[in-house]
Give the backbone structure.
Amino acid sequence: MRLVAFIGLAIFCGSAVIAAPAGVPKPTLIISPEYPKRAFRDRIEGEVEVCFRILSNGRVYRPYVSRSTHRVFNRSALRAIKSSTFEPESLDTAFDKACRRYQFRLKPLEPEQKPTA
Amino acid sequence: MPTTTDSIRGLSRAFAALTLLLAAPNALADSRSAEGRVHDATEIKTVIGPENFFAAEGLALLRDGDPEKALPLLQKGLKRARTDREFVIGLSNICAAYVLLKEPYTALTYCDRALEMKPRFWRALNNRALAYLGMDDLPRAKADLDSATVLAPQSIKLKQTREIYERLANPVEPLIIIDDSPMTDG
């Protein structure tokens, strides 16, 4: 199931795409990570998986990076997940531990969007 | 409301200034050390502060982002250059000043002169690449950037210039994909 609504805080006018299949904690606030400046400068793409527990109030508890293709993305991913919240009603033991993957991609701009000067 | 393109342009300008300004301090250090070697070999005298006052002051102004005031001082400093090395650095700094003044064609003449004297001077190559970027001559900018990167592969300034080039030549925008689907190992 694709979730359309999102809160994008990505810099450089970045956009976010969210895939949230049924069976995982339902997010109430999704914070998109910032694309790290150094990674953007050096044109680095990557992926980070963060795992965490969810408190009864829906807040994320003790997140950690479980997998990362490049450490430059880790801090941004952790910051984003710490600010995100989930629906407390949907919590059960199955969601005691959840994980989220952030893919950092660089999308080529369309020709008409290219700067001319 | 600013568009993505406007943001990129603004950032590119800011990075251009930053790159040029950051390129300057070591060049000054080179200048001072070159002069020091000359005097060691000829005579001993006490010198307080930089010997080429105008070049140093011009450079300081350039670093402060004031190329208008820096330029006449850099020109005076160039006239007082005592070694070829100092002269080449002076040419390169004047080139940088003209780039900041958005006069890339004038900048090019100074960078060309610097590179005629010292073809492997990567700072001048970097400044000339920025001048070419100001002229929208992306292929030549890339050629200079590539040459400079061979000479100074770790230079952060060259990376910043390359970023400007990439933004103009191959613009991209960040896309963050958030995936909450269950984990699969492997």
Q: What stands out?
A: The helical segments of chain B are 4-42, 53-63, 67-79, 84-100, 104-117, 122-134, 138-151, 156-169. The beta strands of chain B are 172-179.
